[in-house]
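for the writeup, i need someone to sanity check this before i put it in the appendix. the sequnce is what the collaborator sent (i think, or maybe the updated version? ugh). structure was predicted straight from it, no edits. if anything looks off just tell me and ill rerun, i have time this weekend
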Amino acid sequence: MTSKNTFERYGILPNSRQSGDLELSLRCLVRFYRTVLAELKPKSAVPWNTRMNAWRLGFKSKSWDLYKLDENDPGLYLPDLSSLLKSYKINGFSNPIIGNKLVLSRLLATHQVPHPNVISTIQQGKLTADDVPFDPDMTSTLMRTLDRYPRQVFRPTWSGGGQGVFFLNRVDESLRLNGKEISTGEACELLSRLDRYMATEFQDQAPYAKSIYPGSTNTIRILTLWDVERWEPFIAAVSHRFGSSRSAPIDNFHQGRGGVCAAVNLDTSNLGPAWRLTDDVQLVSEEIHYESGMPIEGVVVPGFKNCIDGVLKAASHFPYCPMIGWDVLLTKQGFCIVEANSTPGLTVLQVHTPLLKDPRSRKFFQHWGLIPDK
């Protein structure tokens, strides 16, 4: 008896949107269209012959230099263009579950995964503390939450790349926003203009990360994929990011914002060679942090193996999201998942090691149609 007949026999209405292929394809096309516009900018510093070589192999022009594709085998790297056109389909309609930071926080709490507590939310300029009903007096609400959590991180519930993130601290009787003094009235006026925001408690990073660069929250990007044969999550790639005076208070590496990223050895927990992007998106090797002067390469990341085990356990709760890029902060107490990305930027990972070098990762992307099944 066919599945269709079984549905009819038991009176189950068919789900006409089960695949949702058209909707997901349109979302992928939007991402692809934005990239094409960026690639065709006539004032780009990347020469046209380099752009043509990169496009022919399915990569963005900047990836040609970042991955050194004139020297390395392009077949070992996941192409940018196929990722743009198809990666959104991997998690499908579950993309918003990971992409919405507020929803993800609720789920992580349910699964008892370490993450920053949600303090308050902002919807259409209305600040609501997470533990009490809405109070129209924003000043009262804000000051009450700051009494309990003197250091808070505000971020859009749906964004990426550190966009819109700021830090609000209460020091004695004064407020500081990203380290600069601000009045209570100015802070409330700013919050009243926001929408779809959330505030979480600030997490102190582990001493090793703070010593390398103290002016930013320095996180580890961990990519988990699901083994298509054993159907269990595995670690596909890891990259540790460190901020700079230009990227602070966050640790952005991409788009030449001054951040630094280093690979982490899964066996030894040691940081590998670090890389930085210049203003003209050229890759520069760094053994030490170019501003703090502190060593990066060779530094042991304490608690890293426990962190990896914790992230794998977290990923096991999300079988409906086979690809997640986790942003993790190591603290004195252990680890804390700051946020996650359903369609993670791969540059910060592949700049160290090509994803398709791992047979499990290659099978994963073959299974989802991002690369040919050879």
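The longest strand covers residues 233-242. Residues 21-90 form one domain.
thx in advance!!
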